[in-house]
Amino acid sequence: MTDFLSYQFIVNALLASLFGAVTAGIMGTYVVTRRMVFITGGVTHASFGGLGLGYFLGINPIVGAAGIAVIAGLSVEYFNQKRKIREDSLIAMAWSLGMALGIIFIFITPGYAPNLMSYLFGSILTVSTGDLIAMSMLMITVSLFFILFFRAIQYITFDEEFARTAGIPVNFFKYLLMVLVALTAVIYIRVAGIILVLSMLTIPQNTAMLLAKKLKNIIFWSVFFSFAGSIAGLLLSYYRDIPSGASIIFSLMVIYFLIAVFKPILRKRIKS
Q1: Radius of gyration of the chain from Cα atoms?
Q2: 3-class SS letters over 218-249
């Protein structure tokens, strides 16, 4: 373990795991309880267009991905609210258009084509100081937002009509939450990659829901399981020399199955 912590990139990965676990634990709970999993998947894959645009313009690809993801998320939310296009069609169009644009921009970018494996499958071991700063800022923003507006978010999550009756600006909150979901998905690309990032926003939350029913408790356990799975995945990746993103997802699924098997025993000890 001493050797494990002696490398700076390992320390960075541990910090990224902590920051990401808090952010994804909170936002993933909103995604799962609102049944927005596939919307989030569409937005995440649409961000690939932003990665390609970033390479084409010579800027940080994550910045480009964040911009496109936010635009895609707001567009999906807008057209979904207006009921102009079916939700499943919106997701498919955002998904396919983003991937197509990403390929086009990368193809027309002069010079050597970049290696996109770390963006597709993740590489938490390569997170930089800049990545950590961005992740910590997003974690603080998401945490403060949920602390300040938890009751409103809870009403919107479980009973949107009641929230409107109570005078809560539902549409405004939904747009803001979609922006935070999009940014969370993009930030987590560095950890799990575009292909696997949806797992980080769903597996810990579904594991938490095996033990808890209240929103606060689901968030708490989601953060806990997300961090535990990330640490277990890092150890597995380090000692078995396998890709970190895939090993983290594998660890999260192992935790899910263990909790599911021992659920009757655990539920007696943990009150929802």
Answers
A1: 19
A2: HHHHHHHHHHHHHHHHHHHHHHHCCCHHHHHH
The string of pLDDT tens digits covering residues 123-144 is 777 788 888 898 899 999 999 9
Residue 156: its pLDDT value, please? 87
| Cα distance between residue 116 and residue 106, in whole Å | 10
Q: Cα(268)–Cα(272) distance, rounded to whole angstroms?
A: 10
Q: Nearest CA to 32 among 199, 264, 168?
A: 199
CA 171 to chain centre: 22
Of 181, 175, 188, whose CA–CA distance to 62 is shortest? 188
Closest by Cα among 43, 193, 221 to 116 = 193
pLDDT tens digits along 180-235: 998 988 888 877 777 778 888 899 999 999 988 888 999 999 999 999 998 998 88
Tokens of 221: 């356990």
- Entry pTM: 0.85
- Residue 55 burial class via C-beta count within 10 angstroms: exposed 0-12, middle 13-18, buried 19 and up: buried
Please give the C-alpha separations between residue 246 and each of 16, 104, 111, 220, in angstroms, as whole numbers.
16, 27, 30, 24
Backbone torsions φ then ψ of 34, nearest 5 degrees: -90, 0
Alpha helices, DSSP H only, in 34-169? Answer: 37-57, 61-82, 87-108, 117-121, 129-148, 150-158, 160-165
Q: Minimal CA–CA distance to 196: which of 256, 245, 127, 255?
A: 245
Q: How far apart are CA 222 and CA 81, in angstroms?
A: 28
Quick one: pLDDT at residue 46?
86
CA 156/CA 173 separation, integer angstroms? 8
